[in-house]
Every structure is written in structure tokens, then in C-alpha cells.
Amino acid sequence: MDQLNSEGMGLDAPLREALWAVVGNGRRAGRGTRAAVEQALRDHGLGVLARLQRDALAEVCGLTESQAARLAASFQLGRAAERARMGERPSLKRPDDVARFLAPELRGLEIETFQALVLDARHRLKVRVEVSRGTLTMAPVHPREVFAPALRLRGAAVIVAHNHPSGDPEPSAEDFEVTARLVEAGRVVGVPLLDHVVCAGERWVSIRESGRWPRET
């Protein structure tokens, strides 16, 4: 294997070969193309590149339009396959279930997004709703947007989650404040908030399990 392929990109050999097969359309990608893609992987990481659209991939990785289109499509298929493994209506009884379910949507995002998961009485997913999409450090949240889908679909409970693009899943003071507001709103409308999970890469923190869950009056 030549030096370009063996330099550390955080990818094992089979994944590197799959990457070059996609970029090269079944043929070995050119040396210049491989060098540009490897540099992009070192600079940004696979998770970030996987979130980019075709034009951004072409610019960041130095790819042609057709190469970038194939790579973007392969990333999209990978996310779809990851979601499919959990089924259309996964049971979300534990925070790690939530983190695993949302990983394809949240991994590599460079802005915060706030998600509401409406559950039935057996904690199976009825619907996932992106409540808001914000900046690098915050995504505005209003209780109405969180609980309206649950009331419309007669959901039994709600779990919320959001990502920290910084890579640190430790909840902020604002995260605890938002949780307290949502717990109270859920009590008022009769749809309890079960947890608030903060995700960052492969790590996550459950606010309910953190010992700082708001007291429910």
C-alpha cells in the first residue's frame, strides 16, 4: 500500500478502499485526488465531511462534480442504513437508545439542532421532529414546538435531545433551564418529558441520569 493510503486518516484499510472505489467510480482514484481527500479528512474529520452537500464536498475535497455527487450519495445511504437497523418505530427506553437513534442525524453537525421524540405508551417512537436549528452554541426552543406534535398525535410522552458541536456533551446552564421549562410545560399539558439527552460525537449525557433533573410539582 502506498504512503498516501497508509497515512493516518482515522479510517481502516477496508473503509479507505471503499472510499476510493466511490470517488473513482470503481477505479483507483488518482494520486492528486487521494491527497486532497486525505487532507480534508485530516482537517475536518469524516463526520463533518459526511454532512456536506455535493458542492461543498467538491470544494473542500477537490473533487469533480460527479465524484462529489457519488460521495454525497454514499454518505446519505450510510445514514439511511444506520437508521434502518433500528427499525421504523424503535423502542427508546434508555438514553443510549436515543443517542444511537439520533447519531446519523447529529454526528458531524457544526450547528446545534434540537430534536423532539414523541413516544407511545410503550416508549416506541411515533415521530421525530426537529424543533429548531441554531448556531454553533445554541438552538432556540419553545415548549409549544416541542409538545404540539405530541398533542396532535396523542403521544404518551416526549424525550428531547440536542447536540453540542464543541464535542463536549456536558449540559450547560441553559440546557438545565430549558429542561426545567419543558418539564413544567409537559406537566401542564399532560404529556411528561422523560429525558433530555445531550449528544456530542459518540458521547452523550442524560440530564435525568445526571442527578439534576428538575423537581416535578
From TrEMBL:
GO terms for biological process: proteolysis. Pfam families: RadC (PF04002). Residues 91-213 form the MPN domain. One of its GO terms (molecular function) is metallopeptidase activity. It comes from the Bacteria. Signal peptide: none annotated. Belongs to the UPF0758 family. PANTHER family: DNA REPAIR PROTEIN RADC (PTHR30471), UPF0758 PROTEIN YEES-RELATED (PTHR30471:SF3). This is MPN domain-containing protein. The lineage of its organism: Bacteria, Pseudomonadati, Planctomycetota, Planctomycetia, Planctomycetia incertae sedis.
